[in-house]
Amino acid sequence: MSRHYFDTFHKGFSVTVLLGWDRPMNYFFLVIEKPTELIDDTMKVESDDFLYSNLHESDPFNHDLDYYREVLRHFQILVPESLFIEVQHDAERNVGNRVVKHQADGSFTEREL
Question: What is the pLDDT of the chain when averaged over all its residues?
Answer without folding.
Answer: 90
